[in-house]
Amino acid sequence: MRELKNLHHLKALGLQVSAAGYDRQAVADHANNLALKIRNNLTNSMKALGVDILTGVGTIVGPQRVKYGKAGFSDNEVTARDIIIATGSVPFVPRGIEVDGKTVITSDHALKLEFVPEWIAIVGSGYIGLEFSDVYTALGSEVTFIEALDQLMPGFDPEISKLAQRVLVNPRKIDYHTGVFATKITPAKDGRPVVIELTDAKTKELKETLEVDAALIATGRAPFTNGLGLENINVLTQRGFIPVDERMRVIDADGKLVPHLYCIGDANGKMMLAHAASAQGISVVEQVSGRDHVLNHLSVPAACFTHPEISMVGLTEPQAREKAEKDGFEISIAKTSFKANTKALAENEGEGLAKLIYRPDTGEILGVHIFGMHAADLIHEASNAMALGTRIQDIKFAVHAHPTLSEVLDELFKSAKVNTQDHSSVREPIAI
Predict the structure, then answer these.
(1) CB atoms within 10 A of CB 424
(2) What integer is the mean pLDDT of 191-213?
(3) Within 13 Å, how many C-alpha atoms sit on residue 368's CB side?
(4) Within 10 A of 420 (CB to CB), how many other CB atoms are there?
(5) Contacting residues for 286 by C-beta, under 8 A, at least 6 apart
(6) What are the start-end ranges of the H helices in 230-330?
(7) What highest taxon heads this organism's lineage (predicted)?
């Protein structure tokens, strides 16, 4: 929708399109049907593999024992050699915010796209908030960000945040308030708008009041761990998260491992990403199958699906500098622009940056951050290199097809200046 409305971009490509429009219900149906299709495919795959699916509320009643069934009537009990808790998370709603599911909503409600508000406030400017600002502005809404910290996109590398704000926020119908809390939000009712009270994050004094058509609460997610029966096995949550070690084994209140009990995904809080949960699950299955495996969370990539996209793996520049100071080594930075990439220029999408943070003494990759076209697809070359321990002096000789966006990373690795030429990880070439 955004591209179809960008007449200047289309004209540059020699294309002409009449006035673009959309059917809100059809857009919502596409999203809902996609989720349903994926869920059904996963369910059918499990059944084909011989997996038994027992439906109901599950409660751990003791070591290797689980009850399940309807809430309050979980009378069915099963035993298992190993138990994996994978209950995920729910949207986090701060105190003072009243969610009605219609005008004050969470990301769960927003996915249904029941209406497109003329003006929507988004509380929080992380992944969820940014992605929905992208959706709503493309569909014609005006957006106001409300961010408790002093800058937008606080979780990203600062240089990437600055560029992303210039591209994703400033040119669009988006304004923002930083350094403020939304301490009270009242849903629209009887013809009155949604009312938001903004409080200064430092002084705690009321700063101003906003009146908008809708508010999206994008303040993160909270672990869904209540009612699991953890007290039956002497496990205490920490801010709702289940404590685990590096092998996802659950730790009890005395600091001891609970035999045969694991927790993966958002419920353990190590890294609240779907693919991180999957990787943790694979790690656990390896262990219960008799093969040890520890997941390197620093090599797990993350992506924000805006247009253009943001992706990252490893440390941000401030985190890397802090680690370097603590451990006594130097770091270096390399950057490449999408403006130098043939494929990006061909598609008139040259806005973007790739950034590499590395150790010049060893060639170790500490972090890679990308903002630009298909950034979410490009990050995996870097994340795989980090997972495998591949160093810059090795990967810079890899060959990339031309013209492709992957050459952005090719140029990035080639531009890094490493002080050692140790190629200990390079294997003997195979003749084909």
Answers:
(1) 9
(2) 96
(3) 29
(4) 14
(5) 292, 293
(6) 274-288, 317-327
(7) Eukaryota
Average confidence (pLDDT) over 112-125: 96
What's the chain's average pLDDT? 94
Report d(CA 263, CA 242) in Å as an integer: 7
Phi-psi category of residue 265: left, alpha or beta, with phi > 0 → left and psi -120 to 50 → alpha = left
Q: What is the CA radius of gyration of the chain?
A: 24
User: Which two three-digit tokens encode residue 225?
Assistant: 């761990």
Query: What's this model's pTM, rounded to 2 decimal places?
Result: 0.93
DSSP string of 17-45, one letter each residue: -PPP---HHHHHHHHHHHHHHHHHHHHHH
Report how far residue 217's alpha carbon sits from residue 94's, in angstroms, rounded to the nearest whole number.
9
Cα–chain-centroid distance for residue 212?
27
Which DSSP string corresponds to 87-122? --EEE---TTB---SSSEEEHHHHTT-----SEEEE
* HSE (side-chain half, CA atoms, 13 Å) at 86: 16
pLDDT given at position 426: 40
Q: 11: part of which helix (H) or strand (E)?
A: helix 7-12
119-123 and 214-217 beta bridge pairing: parallel
Q: Which of 34, 30, 19, 32 is nearest to 140 (CA)?
A: 19
